[in-house]
Amino acid sequence: MEKTLIDWKTDAWKNPDMVAWYHQRMVENRGTSRLKNQVEADLCERYVLGPRLLDVGIGTGRGSLPLARAGFEVTGVDSSQAMLDQTRKLAGDTPIQLRQGDLGDLKFADGEFDGVMSLNVLVHFPNWREILAEWHRVARPGGRILFDIHSQDHEDAACAAKGLPPRPEGLGEDYLGYMSRIRVADLVETVNRLGQRIEAVVPYAGIFAGGNINLWLKDTLAEGTRYDRLLSWLISDPALLAFALFLEQEVFAHLTTRVTGRMMVVLDNRPDVAGNLAWLERDERLNAALARGVYADIAGLVPAFDQDWQQRLNQHLDHPRNRVLLHFLLSAWREFPGRLDLASFLDERHAVTLEDWRRQDELDRLVTRIPRALAALPEVAGILNYKGVPLMGGQDYELTRNLLSKTFHAFD
User: What is the pTM of this model?
Assistant: First the structure.
């Protein structure tokens, strides 16, 4: 079954038309694609080691071509010749070595590269441990490995807290929908066995789906048409894009893999069992602090949330769309009233505005639920029905107006 999935995933990208579609989707300058590409490109630039860099599953080179242009000696491997042809075309005069091959059976010598990177690859395959062992082999001692993958810790925590049905962990028949998800405890066990050290595990995709939606946002204001419409402004609103990057890079990146559905894993190719266990222990303490909502505990583990950070947060919120984005995201946080009161980070003018919006949304939800609940009552449904035609729909607006103006005095 596992081999069938791998073959199916591999064959899907041998079609040049599929490759052209993929490239366009990856680089298109709209919606959350722009945000995702920027977050991942910045992580690659920050963490990769060179000069000899191997990009496994290079695709169309969106991760490593900028590094090649910056002077890295990039070698790219992909199972799809169509992908490699597209990369060669995009590279132009930039020096780059390209080879067709199997990402789990690399035809390179032990320790041939200073760094190994891979974007949007391991998320598709269940045999991530075996693949990581091969990448460990071709990276030199003291070299570095960087890859992204989805978080099973996120799935476990969010489904338990929100009462959502968990998705199957194992490989089923849904090849198209399969995504590999791992727990950080399993990651630590694997890297200790291979003789690697965790340099960083960076959670991201807290705002955008990234192939694996943030389950904390389900059934909140940060889900649905209004939220998608807001994110569509990322293409043309530089201030909104800057704020989204701030949230991804200076909020979610400092938290844990329970908070977002995707992570960038950065490993040094040298053993450090004690360091890895210490990293895991800190991760568990931060999860506990986030659950309790005790600011002193969180600040002790995440010193990045300092006065300078608060000042920059409030500067971003001077832009109207940024306040709307935070309002949507806070609707997910408020589902858990025992958590830290984030209003303590805000200037009074922003705290008052966001609290006012919260009350308005709460009132909106209440007054829209009342007509629906009334219409569901058998005695009301019988009255508001004429020859089989339900009439309640025509009364919703009038009833809602009366509730807002006469019962809740919302317009006083």
Answer: 0.87
Q: Which amino acid is at 381?
A: A
Q: Where are the domains of the chain?
A: 2-297, 365-412
The tens digit of pLDDT for each residue in 240-257 reads 999 999 999 999 999 999
| Burial (Cβ within 10 Å: 0-12, 13-18, ≥19) of residue 201 | buried
For 15-62, how does the pLDDT look when each residue is reduced to its tens digit (9 = 90+)? Answer: 677 666 666 666 665 668 889 999 999 999 999 999 999 999 999 999
Q: What is the dihedral of CA 64, 66, 72, 77, to 10 degrees?
A: 20
What CA–CA distance (Å, rounded) separates 35 from 205? 9
Q: Do residues 283 and 265 touch, judged by C-beta distance below 8 A?
A: no
Q: Does an H or E element contain 74, and which?
A: strand 73-78
- Top-level CATH class of 2-297? alpha beta
> Do residues 129 and 190 lie in contact, with contact meaning Cβ atoms separated by under 8 Å?
yes
173 CB burial (10 A radius; 0-12, 13-18, 19+):
exposed
| Amino acid at the residue 57 | G
